[in-house]
Write a structure and sequence with these properties.
The chain is built from eleven helices and three strands, in the order αααββαβααααααα. It has a three-stranded antiparallel β-sheet with strand order 2-1-3. It comes from Serendipita indica (strain DSM 11827) (Root endophyte fungus). This is DNA replication complex GINS protein PSF3.
Length: 228
């Protein structure tokens, strides 16, 4: 028992089990690896970075760690944190300058979960870096929301014909860069629990909610107009 307590393999297994408990399979599919710089040499763990060398070398940059392993390595001081490329200074400056022009959906993996992975990165950071990145995520979301609402109206037919025609090219460009949170359609479980058998999920995309809101407003307006 004592040997297992100090066993690195046991620590890794426990961390992976805890991580799988808190994140469902859909979320695990998009999770990126975290770039770290090891402060110490770790024997026998070269496979973590798919390295040819059997050992992890100290001060070797760009070691790729699974997200579930990163907190242990960072909090113990065994490794230092490198800001992931989707949130580096270049991207941060771009989304601060004009959030609508950045295709954030293309920055993180195949599913494009820039906001979700960003929240996970925030959890690894300490202040003031954590607050700065959290503020950027929030402001980016708010800055893109008006265009997202416009596109939702476009697809529900509530926008004027002139607006739909003039905004086709710009709208298509914007839609091609939507984040998964903005674009994916997922049902909402009203009881707040994930249902693994019937396909219900907690998340619902902003785009779909905006479409439904536009439909309801249009239906209300038309019914009110008829009653006059």
């Amino acid at each position: 028992m004592d040997n297992e307590y100090y066993s690195l393999d046991a620590i890794l297994a426990e961390n992976q089990a805890c991580f799988s408990y808190y994140y469902n399979s859909d979320e695990l599919n998009f999770i990126e690896k975290i770039e770290c710089t090891f402060n110490i040499e770790v024997p026998g763990l070269g496979y973590l970075d798919n390295a040819a060398d059997e050992h992890v070398k100290a001060l070797h940059r760009d070691d790729q760690l699974p997200y579930w392993l990163a907190p242990t390595m960072l909090y113990t001081g065994w490794a230092g944190f490198n800001m992931p490329r989707p949130y580096n200074g270049l991207v941060q400056n771009a989304v601060v300058a004009e959030p609508r022009s950045v295709k954030i959906g293309a920055l993180v993996g195949e599913n494009g979960r820039w906001y979700a992975f960003g929240k996970m990165v925030v959890d690894l950071l300490s202040d003031p870096q954590a607050k700065e990145l959290a503020d950027i995520l929030r402001q980016t979301f708010k800055g893109r929301l008006p265009d997202l609402m416009d596109q939702a109206q476009h697809f529900t037919g509530t926008a004027s014909a002139a607006a739909r025609t003039s905004g086709d090219d710009a709208g298509a460009e914007f839609r091609s860069g939507l984040d998964a949170t903005e674009r994916e359609r997922e049902n909402v479980d009203p009881y707040g629990h994930l249902e693994g058998t019937d396909g219900c999920h907690l998340r619902c995309s902003v785009f779909v909610m905006a479409q439904e809101s536009a439909r309801q407003v249009k239906a209300w307006y038309e019914s009110s107009d008829k009653s006059r």
